[in-house]
Backbone:
């Protein structure tokens, strides 16, 4: 029987996907998402679709899911297929659109009990919203007198309440790096959260372990709970605090640790096999006007007055000539996979040949002036291997934006990395929800494509499998991708949890076997004593 998982603040399901994808005995799922809770209606639709896919996977009816992803049938027709309709009925009980902290607690508790079906061994996962802890969020609200009243500071208490009431065997809680330095009324939020989770209520205690370092809370530093995703095979410099709670009193052994990879996985390794596409123009778009915009872009570099001016102009011109892509992409691009001779771990995780192409790989529209900045940034990275900051930009390419104006006191430009190319031979910068606002921070490394990353490329950097379909419009899709936990990282965490639960089960069986053996030995001794007593009585007569 699969181990139930309850996923709180689930988002589009990145953390849950990692657990649900892990197999156990005879290829069966070791974990089962018994219940996922998410307040955002669009992310909830994504959770529903993924639950449907898991239900159909392994059956002949999974072909309908792929047809839906390819746009061959709409959602009405998709739901109208009997097997799919049945899968949606199951998904409606698994994925719930509820807001923790505002929805009725008694109802939520009933749903959790129903989902667990009386099983004692289960896992709680999730990441309470992090805006109040993130460095960016705190920076934006530095002068906000009401920031300390933000309810998001204490949404972890909803997670804590579930622990208090339902007592999971193990929990995995994720949050941003900023949690380590966040304070509320002068008190460290990290220390408070760890203390609360260590003893949720009287008689219930948890060891708060680290996935990367052995030891107990007393011997671990706050930084020991920080996971650098790029060290573990994720093509992204995503640093997140992840707490590993193990209930005391269950005789839990030490757990395995995350195994670092020999070399970081790069942006190129993650997305280079995707179809080459061009960006669009926000006004008057056509292939001809797009190419003219690229051909005019090198003129913006004139007057840069650096020794690199000529080399940059020539490089930009060469890439403008090489910009031969005619399609801006689409919701689905049909194509075959080029089977690698020796697929990498990431390729095995991402690719699904049954899909027959790539979905949600469509470029944004950009202003002509931004195209010039993108071409410059990508060409700069191509030449020198790093992303230029705004104070390295030619004057004609500096945007007329309040965040770019030179500070009069320091004579420095704030937000220098406003336009950031993702260098091909390194992991990407952290993919965050802000990617939905604009693509300036996520410029593709190929100058001839001259664009920001697509939803599918961002999803790849987050390690969502290619068969993962995000509901909603493109802005909503970007937001979901940015808010998620990388599923491949979650999968590696799930392996550690599986190993720990298996070891716990072995110890239980061994203990039960020893007890039975002792009982049997005691019974045999008793029988022998009784027989000896009879023989002794007979001899005395």
Residues:
């Amino acid at each position: 029987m699969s181990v139930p998982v309850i996923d709180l603040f689930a988002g589009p399901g990145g953390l849950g996907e990692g657990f649900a994808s892990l197999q156990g005995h005879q290829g069966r799922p070791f974990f089962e998402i018994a219940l996922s809770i998410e307040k955002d209606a669009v992310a909830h639709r994504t959770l529903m679709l993924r639950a449907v896919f898991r239900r159909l996977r392994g059956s002949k009816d999974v072909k309908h899911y792929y047809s839906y992803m390819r746009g061959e049938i709409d959602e009405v027709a998709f739901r109208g297929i009997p097997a799919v309709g049945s899968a949606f009925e199951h998904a409606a009980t698994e994925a719930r659109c509820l807001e923790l902290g505002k929805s009725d607690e008694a109802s939520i508790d009933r749903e959790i009990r129903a989902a667990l079906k009386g099983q004692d061994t289960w896992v709680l996962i999730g990441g309470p919203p992090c805006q109040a802890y993130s460095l960016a969020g705190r920076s934006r609200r530095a002068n906000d007198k009401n920031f300390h009243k933000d309810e998001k500071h204490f949404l972890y208490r909803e997670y804590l309440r579930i622990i208090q009431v339902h007592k999971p065997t193990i929990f995995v809680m994720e949050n941003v790096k900023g949690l380590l330095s966040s304070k509320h009324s002068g008190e460290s939020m990290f220390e408070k959260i760890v203390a609360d989770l260590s003893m949720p209520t009287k008689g219930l205690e948890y060891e708060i372990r680290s996935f990367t370092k052995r030891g107990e809370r007393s011997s671990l530093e706050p930084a020991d709970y920080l996971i650098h995703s790029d060290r573990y095979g994720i093509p992204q410099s995503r640093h997140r605090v992840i707490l590993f709670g193990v209930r005391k009193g269950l005789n839990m052994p030490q757990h395995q640790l995350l195994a670092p990879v020999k070399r970081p996985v790069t942006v190129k390794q993650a997305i280079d096999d995707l179809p080459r596409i061009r960006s669009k123009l926000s006004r008057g778009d056509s292939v001809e006007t797009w190419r003219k915009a690229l051909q005019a872009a090198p003129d913006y570099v004139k007057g840069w007055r650096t020794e690199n001016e000529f080399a940059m102009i020539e490089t930009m011109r060469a890439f403008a000539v090489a910009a031969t892509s005619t399609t801006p992409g689409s919701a689905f691009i049909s194509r075959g996979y080029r089977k690698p001779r020796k697929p990498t771990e990431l390729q095995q995780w991402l690719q699904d040949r049954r899909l027959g192409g790539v979905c949600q790989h469509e470029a944004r529209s950009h202003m002509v002036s931004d195209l010039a900045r993108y071409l410059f940034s990508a060409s700069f990275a191509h030449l020198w291997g790093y992303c230029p900051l705004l104070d390295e930009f030619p004057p004609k390419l500096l945007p007329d934006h309040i965040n770019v104006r030179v500070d009069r006191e320091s004579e420095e430009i704030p937000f220098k990395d406003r336009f950031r190319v993702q260098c091909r031979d390194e992991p990407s910068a952290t993919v965050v929800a802000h990617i939905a606002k604009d693509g300036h921070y996520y410029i593709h490394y190929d100058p001839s494509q001259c664009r920001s990353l697509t939803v599918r490329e961002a999803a790849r950097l987050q390690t969502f499998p290619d068969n993962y379909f995000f509901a909603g419009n493109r802005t909503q899709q970007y937001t979901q991708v940015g808010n998620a936990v990388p599923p491949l990282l979650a999968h590696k965490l799930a392996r550690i949890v599986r190993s720990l639960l298996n070891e716990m089960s072995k110890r239980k069986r061994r203990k039960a076997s020893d007890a039975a053996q002792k009982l049997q030995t005691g019974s045999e001794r008793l029988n022998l004593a009784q027989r000896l007593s009879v023989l002794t009585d007979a001899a005395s007569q």
In short: The two ends are 60 Å apart (CA to CA). Residues 267-473 form one domain.
